[in-house]
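Propose amino acids for all 381 sites.
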């Protein structure tokens, strides 16, 4: 358990809640989930499932109708043929990541991932007695791995490479041709590529292509949490190479038996055109928020060399404003009631120079947040 770090932001959140209980107004820019409620058609499908009495265990890999719906989604959105047999429905993409790593990581095996990156992954690798090899990335390589970086960090113990595109915390998109090159290097060396596409659907300035197009032996992870606004339903999926599906099924049967039933029936409405129309409108709201917050942060002295192309995060350099981003985050919360996530939650590489802003609040709230941060910085000068 020594290798498993807590989320520092949870401590900040606890402090924020305490301040709120005392009557302080807190602006939450630390929360990595959409502020939009789950679209109505999804909720209604969930309610219908409950009323029908669909409250039992389902197959460990998910209900066949949803596996088929996900497969159709790949054809409709990306023009890629995927057999429903390769689609495994999971309890959030968190469980998909655990299942994928579970079937790939033997004790001592290495997994290459980015620093900064989504922190749970290195802890899951640790739990499996593998070794997460954090590759430092920054604006110089668009905060993503490259084929060259993968080559450089590959050892005879490397089993897998994990990329997330767009990434948490940077929102950076991995260029598709680079993704193909990474897939080639990984497969030449007998390893496996895992592509976390949980923020697909929340991409603002580019066309997105799925890792499934790059090669058949890739694991693609996705979720109903972010784009589909279903964080609390705990539902995700993965598309795995056929040879691994039975292994994943065994593991899922043992770890959680089945993904949540009502959530799966609800999610059948997630791909309906009326739902997608709601979600795409919300994506535009996120874009507007990004386009508001980014220039404001730059104006205040935060450094963000590249415009984040997706997700709902801005990973901002605060070197010019503070010596240590963790202290900065604590002081900002205490003094002005603005909660942000310190870089230390995403790794060790220059973590004390960054904070993450989640633009998961309305423009009015963001505007108030910016005013408070401006006041805080002016006082510190
Ligand atoms: C990159 C990334 N992957 C996976 C997850 C896990 O999300 P969930 O289990 O809700 O699908 C998150 C959550 O923030 C994330 O940022």
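Proposal:
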């Amino acid at each position: 358990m020594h290798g498993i770090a807590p989320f520092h932001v949870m401590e900040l959140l606890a402090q924020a809640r305490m301040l709120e209980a005392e009557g302080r107004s807190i602006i939450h820019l630390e929360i990595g989930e959409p502020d939009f409620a789950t679209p109505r058609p999804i909720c209604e499908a969930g309610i219908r499932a409950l009323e029908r009495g669909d409250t039992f265990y389902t197959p460990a890999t998910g209900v066949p109708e949803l596996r088929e719906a996900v497969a159709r989604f790949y054809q409709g959105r990306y023009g890629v043929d995927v057999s429903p047999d390769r689609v495994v429905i999971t309890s959030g993409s968190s469980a998909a990541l655990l299942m994928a790593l579970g079937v790939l990581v033997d004790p001592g095996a290495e997994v290459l991932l980015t620093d900064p990156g989504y922190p749970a992954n290195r802890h899951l690798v640790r739990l499996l007695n593998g070794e997460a090899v954090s590759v430092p990335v920054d604006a110089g390589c668009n905060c993503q791995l490259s084929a060259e970086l993968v080559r450089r960090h590959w050892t005879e113990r490397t089993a897998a490479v994990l990329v997330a595109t767009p990434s948490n915390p940077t929102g950076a998109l991995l260029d598709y041709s680079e993704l193909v090159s990474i897939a080639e290097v990984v497969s030449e060396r007998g390893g496996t590529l895992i592509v976390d596409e949980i923020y697909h659907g929340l991409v603002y300035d580019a066309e997105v292509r799925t890792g499934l197009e790059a090669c058949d032996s890739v694991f693609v992870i996705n979720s109903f949490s972010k784009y589909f606004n279903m964080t609390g339903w705990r539902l995700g999926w993965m598309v795995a190479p056929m040879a691994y599906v039975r292994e994943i099924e065994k593991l899922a049967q043992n770890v959680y038996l089945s993904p949540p039933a009502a959530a799966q029936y609800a999610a059948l409405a997630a791909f309906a055109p009326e739902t997608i129309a709601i979600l795409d409108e919300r994506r535009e709201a996120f874009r507007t928020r990004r386009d508001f917050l980014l220039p404001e942060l730059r104006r205040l002295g935060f450094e963000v060399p590249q415009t984040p192309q997706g997700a709902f995060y801005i990973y901002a350099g605060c070197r010019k404003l503070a010596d240590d981003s963790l202290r900065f985050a604590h002081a900002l919360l205490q003094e002005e009631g603005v909660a942000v996530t310190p870089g230390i939650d995403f790794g060790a590489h220059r973590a004390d120079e960054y904070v993450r802003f989640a633009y998961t609040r309305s423009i009015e709230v963001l505007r108030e947040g910016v005013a408070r941060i401006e006041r805080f910085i002016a006082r510190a000068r």
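The first strand starts at residue 27 and ends at 28. Residues 32, 92-94, 118, 164, 168, 196, 198, 223, 225, 231, 236 surround pyridoxal-5'-phosphate (CB under 6 Å).
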